[in-house]
From TrEMBL:
Organism for this UniProt entry: Pedobacter steynii
The organism's taxonomic lineage, starting at the top: Bacteria, Pseudomonadati, Bacteroidota, Sphingobacteriia, Sphingobacteriales
HAMAP family: MurD
One Pfam family matching this protein: Mur_ligase_C
Location of the protein in the cell: Cytoplasm
GO cellular component, one term: cytoplasm
Protein name: UDP-N-acetylmuramoylalanine--D-glutamate ligase
Keywords from the UniProt entry: ATP-binding, Cell cycle, Cell division, Cell shape, Cell wall biogenesis/degradation, Cytoplasm, Ligase, Nucleotide-binding, Peptidoglycan synthesis
Domain Mur ligase C-terminal: 311-424
Cited PANTHER family: UDP-N-ACETYLMURAMOYLALANINE--D-GLUTAMATE LIGASE (PTHR43692)
GO terms of biological process kind: cell division; cell wall organization; peptidoglycan biosynthetic process; regulation of cell shape
NAD listed as a keyword: no
SUPFAM superfamilies referenced in this protein's UniProt entry, alphabetically: MurCD N-terminal domain, MurD-like peptide ligases, catalytic domain, MurD-like peptide ligases, peptide-binding domain
Amino acid sequence: MENNRIVVLGAGESGVGAAMLAQKHGFDVFVSDFGAIASQYKERLQELNIAFEEKQHTSEEILNATEVIKSPGIPDKAPIIVALKKKEIPVISEIEFAKRYTDAKTICITGSNGKTTTSMLTYHILKKAGLNVGLAGNIGNSFAALVATADFDWYVLEISSFMLDDMYDFRADIAVLLNITPDHLDRYDYKLGNYAASKMRIAQNQGSNDTFIYCADDEETIKAMKHIRFNSKMYPFSIRKQIEEGAYLESNNMHININHKDPLTMSIIELALQGKHNIYNSMASGIVAKVLEIRNATIRESMGDFRNIEHRLEHVAKISGVEYINDSKATNVNSTWYALESVNTDVILIMGGVDKGNDYEMLKDLVRQKVRAIVCLGKDNKRIHEAFEDDVEVIVNTFSANEAVKMAYHLAKKGNTVLLSPACASFDLFKNYEDRGNQFKMAVKEL
């Protein structure tokens, strides 16, 4: 067996990035994808002369690896992973592999909700402060691709639970855990405790010079923390109680205090990101910035002029007094709860798609208070009808973004908000949540 053969499973952003980095460090690299490889990734592999296969996993090519880097989307139950584990061939994540080849410091952000927004905001503050910083992980570029092609001092990494599951020696200099709510439970034997344990891996291997930032108001986080011995410096954030070191809210002012040095106070009215959940996201980013001793003026300015990502509570248009918001990235119930919580008008809610075993109970109060009608957008909307038939007078079915927007337009009154916040995956009618969001925006612009 060759002692330097790396096999990469999955040829998406993370897989191709890992292959580029492995090739740069002299490994014999082979990439295998069980599905079809997207043209942009295939072209990159061909340009680099990296051997690959698609639409299959050839055992003879894979089971002779020294080490395997797997894409986060491949479950441990996949036959090829089972075969690798049986042969005791190490299987790691791209994040774990990439960290071996950089001395840069890492700020790792995870949580069931808000991690993309918090990662983007943290990156925005650091960049504005003049740090040499890259943004990677579950967002945009893969960490490995950036390590292979760039030279940053800091990385802000958005990290999913699937990435954490295959991280062993990796250590975050600053770890942020925003919240833990039921998501992807099909990968965790439908046990919230298993999923929570996966999220807590963000703090593994941390030492006394490292930082762990967490939400003191999140019950599942506090419960999961009881099983861990922390060595890092810990900073909580809360909107319910005063925090001595960390961040808290007091009569519409956000206070951040680290080491009792130059505390930051900022009115939440000044924040670019509005809504209760975004106060949490801003607090987490603010603590990171204060740990790095970034000036208060820079933090204030960054939090005031930040623009959120596409497909996350994105304002699309105002037509005849009706606001249209694209929140296609809301692929779980909790994200939809946050979206409804942040809208202050009556809502026509467009939701539906591939239901991941959703429990809609947590939405019922907000739906009763705010939602005038639900427009279902999906092939099978039975569970949405069952969940909300007693709470909403109008529930209608549609099977395209165009049809859903037209229906919402007829149902909405002046002063209402039409909110696309599906609470479901998009794969029944769309390529992905971006495709769903883009089709929604096009349909709104055609009104």
